[in-house]
Write a structure and sequence with these properties.
Elements: E1 15-17, H1 23-35, H2 39-42, H3 51-62, E2 68-77, E3 82-95, E4 106-115, H4 124-138, E5 143-146, H5 153-158
Parallel strand pairs: 4-5
Antiparallel strand pairs: 1-2, 2-3, 3-4
Helix pairs in contact: 1-3
């Protein structure tokens, strides 16, 4: 089911594709993602304080990119009931070399699903994840990868994700 048949989550909020006017809210939600994770990897020393501006610039480019899908749910949040985005989910498709484990080489990556703390446990994240998985299916990706928090892992496992057979390593130049 594509964006034409968007699902409603439990409280009736619809999922929509993000637009340029959503960038500030997307940056706010991404910041929440990193607040929960500790250590120098996710929260390096202050020399990287410009990351929100860099994120906004990349999101501005990616909102219109056919290999990126940014889905959001609108709602109200805060003590004054201000309107904003209560959840966002970002999916990216990359082209790798085909092989026996990747028939067409297309890999999806869920770059994050983040729900505003005041709107958790209402089905928003699940609805966005299902819509992202539908989008990946429509684009015939061979596999979808993600990094799961301890809180998100049960949802992802319920949706069919399993442990990755390759050990994850990283390098920073």
């Amino acid at each position: 089911m594509g964006l034409r048949g968007l699902r409603n989550n439990r409280d009736g909020s619809g999922i929509r594709q993000a637009v340029q006017d959503d960038i500030a809210e997307l940056v706010r939600l991404r910041a929440l993602l990193f607040e929960k994770r500790g250590g120098d990897f996710f929260n390096p020393p202050s020399e990287h304080d410009d990351w929100p501006a860099a994120l906004a610039a990349v999101l501005k480019e990616q909102i219109a990119d056919d290999t990126v899908r940014i889905l959001v749910v609108d709602g109200t949040h805060g003590t004054h009931g201000t309107h904003g985005i209560v959840v966002c989910g970002i999916g990216v498709i990359g082209q790798r070399l085909p092989g026996p484990h990747l028939s067409n080489g297309r890999i999806g990556h869920v770059a994050g699903v983040v729900t505003d703390p005041a709107h958790r446990r209402r089905g928003h994240g699940r609805a966005v994840m299902r819509a992202l998985l539908d989008w990946f299916r429509e684009r015939e990706v061979s596999r979808v990868d993600l990094y799961a928090s301890d809180q998100g892992a049960p949802l992802y496992r319920e949706l069919g994700f399993t442990d990755h057979p390759d050990p994850a390593l990283y390098w920073r130049p």
